[in-house]
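Figure 2 data, in text form.
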Amino acid sequence: MTKRDLRTAKLTAYAVVGLAAAFYSSPARAQNAEQILQKTRDTYLALKSYADSGVILEEYGSSSKDKHSFATYFNRAPRHFLLQFNKQGGDQFVIWGDPDAFHTWWKTTSQQTDYPNPQNAQAISLSDYNTKGAALKVPTLLYAKSQLAAAMLVIGDPELDGTEAVEGQRCYRVTGRASDTYAATGKEVNVHRKTVWIDVDSYLIRQVREEWKAPPGQVRRTTTLYQPQANPALDEARFKFVPPEAK
């Protein structure tokens, strides 16, 4: 082999090694968007317990912003659930569940509503508006075998848009089209763009961003940030909620 041939062989070898390193160093290249979404669904469905805290940032108009907070606690068996949503300005909405029923309470009306089994899923499905969307995100993954059907990750034409760190945690960034459809007519409404950041190690969701079309110079966007915990030890006191007496 001549020196020229040897030099060419070395350069080829370096190139192959470089390409292999680039391929294996990026988990995003090993899976497509739908595989990642399915792995995320499977992860939440397999959880024995779950907890999170987070914020919801609503941006609208030319510069308006509202910031809300929430916390979720979940135990699969025996069944316990609590989602406490705190709206900017002081309003509050709570969903909690036990083995017999789910319940909701809204501070504005001081009204408690009970949803006995087997129609308990409505406590979550009817609470989207009062929780600024939090009720129909992670809870639909935790109860994916119910009629909620993991609505959180129903994304049309999903695309894997690389990886990005969210609060120091490397995440897959999956983006696509989201909408609602009237069952009776099939009419599609509420069409918008949805992007989900999924932790590459735990497959827990770290961030969700939903964006709607807005007039020039304005924005309509909601970003939900999560600090999730998989299978934490949760004391039963975490799930206790007693509505305050109406004044």
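Caption note: Helices lie at 3-24, 33-46, 122-125, 138-142.
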